[in-house]
Q: What sequence folds into this?
């Protein structure tokens, strides 16, 4: 996640700076984090062919960028948090260097400054970075100027309704938390700091990206696999996780169910100007 609604860019970036060193342990390398990310990777590989020049927004510690670079894609990975970018670069220093991978500190609001680097064959933002933008239309307009006609754009955002979350908090007797996403505008905690987030609906996102992009597909990510705060329980029930992953693969594109996961994954194609 990057810039926030109701929070200055500096404050939002500072919040992510403070969790950068622990982010991989808290999400990337967890059983839930790996399970949800695998679902997104399947779509990224299918939509962005080998040899593609790809722009990543809200790259965090660079897990997705490294995955694509190792598989023949050229990636410019951006994030507003200087600390996240530093962690991402350190991972590369600790692994085989890739000429196909570059990290760059950049917020979503500064996207237009990349016009000197265009065109890109495709772009993506994974795991809720765009939920920190209350208005997606300026972002979509700037992104359209960077992606060539026919290029694919994949966006993974928190869903407005997450059935697994509703069930999880109802079982704990936390009624208010069970339905918190329905308020649309809420607050996410990052360590001891909070940033404002917006739970966009599928229709909100599609409307914001029109007329520059046409929706090609949508699916749930984390329909049966629960959100990351269930990690301790999930770690003790790894056989159950395997079954949940199988159900996600089977059902994530079904009508109605595809809008009820922890995240929604939307694939757009850049329209001809």
A:
């Amino acid at each position: 996640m990057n810039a926030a609604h109701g929070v200055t860019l500096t404050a939002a970036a500072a919040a992510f700076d403070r969790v950068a060193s622990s982010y991989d342990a808290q999400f990337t390398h967890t059983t839930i984090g790996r399970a949800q990310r695998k679902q997104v990777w399947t779509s990224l590989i299918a939509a962005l062919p080998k040899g593609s020049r790809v722009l990543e927004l809200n790259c965090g510690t660079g897990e997705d960028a490294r995955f694509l670079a190792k598989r023949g894609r050229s990636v410019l990975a951006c994030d507003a948090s200087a600390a996240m970018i530093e962690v991402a670069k350190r991972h590369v220093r600790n692994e085989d260097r890739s000429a196909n991978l570059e990290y760059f500190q950049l917020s979503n609001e500064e996207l237009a400054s990349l016009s000197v680097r265009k065109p890109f064959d495709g772009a993506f933002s994974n795991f809720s970075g765009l939920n920190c933008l209350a208005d997606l239309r300026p972002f979509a307009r700037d992104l359209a100027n960077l992606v060539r006609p026919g290029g694919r754009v994949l966006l993974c955002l928190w869903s407005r309704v997450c059935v697994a979350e509703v069930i999880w908090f109802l079982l704990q007797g936390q009624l208010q938390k069970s339905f918190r996403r329905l308020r649309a505008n809420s607050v996410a905690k990052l360590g001891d700091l909070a940033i404002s987030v917006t739970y966009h609906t599928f229709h909100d996102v599609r409307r914001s990206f029109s007329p520059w992009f046409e929706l090609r597909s949508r699916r749930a990510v984390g329909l049966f696999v629960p959100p990351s705060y269930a990690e301790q329980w999930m770690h003790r029930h790894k056989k159950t996780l395997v079954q949940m992953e199988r159900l996600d693969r089977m059902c994530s594109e079904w009508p109605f169910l595809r809008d009820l996961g922890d995240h929604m994954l939307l694939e757009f194609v850049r329209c001809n100007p």
